[in-house]
């Protein structure tokens, strides 16, 4: 009885020591796993911050001969120098005619543009306004006005430039683009939208498709038409007479309506 009694506490202490050690080990394991979980979570959060700092925006004013349209584009910020996919998020039609109609009253273009820009401001988070590049590209209407009266054309562009200086956006200029540039942009847009430059793989990454064919583009504008395509042969073909401009790397060939008309006149004459 005594032995049992005197042994019992002894066994109990042994058991206690044992259970104490296992409790400590369990606690240490528990602590370690908590630390690991926290560490993994922290790393993931950090990585997320690095990988997705949000969206970036760009504004393009397409100043055509009959109307001006404001487009807002967005793309993932981390894709800046890579193959980010750009999408159009907002579009606003500026009231009234194209900017070339304001040759005699260049100040009056400001109000209708401002109405659209106020809507744009609501679509882009305000802290990003100063980093949002903004471009205005004017096409055939302004090319014609410049031919008729260069001062008037410059005053229209000057009025727009002045307006954008008072705006929070990063204005990159208002310019009259050439028919060739317009053709190239149209060609790039058409082929981009058709997925000829990039395609999504099974692993949800974007790659350049091998041997992808490009498509020709026909842009029927208010005052000009652009036909752009990749010719079989660049420069050496008679098509060069159409003032086809081939770009060294991409060999894109542009045919503008005016160059076709010129060629037809020449043929009639000969
Ligand atoms: C993108 O490229 C430009 C010019 O090469 C560079 O200044 C800029 O820091 C780059 N941006 C990123 C996010 O890598
Ligand atoms: C050209 O435009 C300016 C500014 O609108 C005007 O003052 C000038 O009279 C115009 N010139 C001609 C030849 O129409």
From TrEMBL:
InterPro entries: GDA1_CD39_NTPase. Pfam families: GDA1_CD39 (PF01150). GO terms for biological process: nucleoside diphosphate catabolic process. Keywords: ATP-binding, Hydrolase, Membrane, Nucleotide-binding, Transmembrane, Transmembrane helix. ATP binds at residues 222-226. One of its GO terms (cellular component) is plasma membrane. The active site is at 182 (proton acceptor). One of its GO terms (molecular function) is ribonucleoside triphosphate phosphatase activity. The chain crosses the membrane at residues 21-43. Belongs to the GDA1/CD39 NTPase family. PANTHER family: ADENOSINE/GUANOSINE DIPHOSPHATASE (PTHR11782), ECTONUCLEOSIDE TRIPHOSPHATE DIPHOSPHOHYDROLASE 3 (PTHR11782:SF38). This is Ectonucleoside triphosphate diphosphohydrolase 3.
